[in-house]
Write a structure and sequence with these properties.
Layout (H helix, E strand, L loop, with lengths): L1 H6 L1 E7 L4 E5 L2 E12 L14 E8 L2 E7 L5 E7 L3 E8 L3 E7 L7 H13 L3 E7 L6 H13 L3 E4 L8 H8 L3 E5 L6 H8 L9 H5 L11 E4 L5 E4 L3 H4 L16 H4 L17 H7 L5 H13 L5 H6 L1
Parallel strand pairs: 3-5, 8-9, 8-11, 9-10, 11-13
Antiparallel strand pairs: 1-2, 1-4, 2-3, 4-5, 6-7, 12-13
Helix pairs in contact: 2-10
Bound molecules: guanosine-5'-diphosphate and zinc ion.
Amino acid sequence: MRHNHLKNQGKVIKSTRNHYLVRFRDKTLKCIVRGKIVGKSREDLSTVKVGDNVILAEIADDQGVIQKILPRRSKLSRTVDGKAYREHIIAVNIDQMIIIMSIKQPAFKWGLLDRYLVIAEKNKLRSVICLNKIDLAKEEEYQEIENIYKKLKYDIFCTSIVTGQGLVKLSTALKDKVSILVGHSGVGKSSLLQKIEPATPVRISEISEKTTKGKHTTSFVALFPLSFGGYIIDTPGIRELGLWDIFQDELKQYFIEFQQIQDACQFNDCKHLNEPGCAVKEAVKNNKISKFRYQNYKNIYDDLRAAPYELIKRR
Ligand code: GDP
Ligand code: ZN
């Protein structure tokens, strides 16, 4: 029975109005859902999502029927800002967020890196930081950045499409994983992908960009299969997806180096801003917490909204 399951297991890579595209062995099948899908509930296992591992029956060379959704191990979701706050699942079974930053041209954006990390933490995704274009900078210029994040146990490495440095590390990081690739435009996402996977469409995000005019639609999230194993999520971008809906009071949870230290704050609900007896601020003073990271915490905090009453009530 179990063997049979594995044999007929595919992965949903795209969802359209009429059907799902499912990667099955080396093919992509157009699939429909027939009848009721049985799944263990708690999470919504009655609707097929991009990233779902499914059991299917092949009914033609390029067609199939989805029969069952296998348990999900993670999800990327956003809160839909409507009358009631509802969770909207964007994709499931994502392993990690690959954050591509450039050292120069465009300049390194420290605040943006920490914003991505916050989003990854909120969605319980592993983060991998890739510092690109290091051929344009001296080692001293990025060593400090590397050290700060290494100390925090984030995976971080440097790449260059000019010298080829780090490209093997990047493909190793992507291999057999489902990764969401993020980064400001111009940092080298397409170039890097092109180097490690020549089969990549020139611009992986081309299709998505056309759809970001009006309301963002999550039906355009798609998985792009890598020839050496693994998938990349092709999305219109974090902002367009509305993932950036974090409220002020939850932000401190997502700065991982605050976690141990903040138990020692005088106030339980210390925001680590102007409170007396703040252990986090003390740690910044003693260089136990990076002053850059703390500054980003304050900047991000100022950008965020206070949680709406309806959400606070529910916590
Ligand atoms: P994307 O918008 O993130 O997909 O960025 P692109 O891949 O389009 O790259 C933007 C520009 O940066 C292009 O002109 C690339 O040739 C250049 N570029 C990408 N990676 C590197 C690198 O490692 N070193 C240098 N010097 N230029 C790079
Ligand atoms: Zn504090």
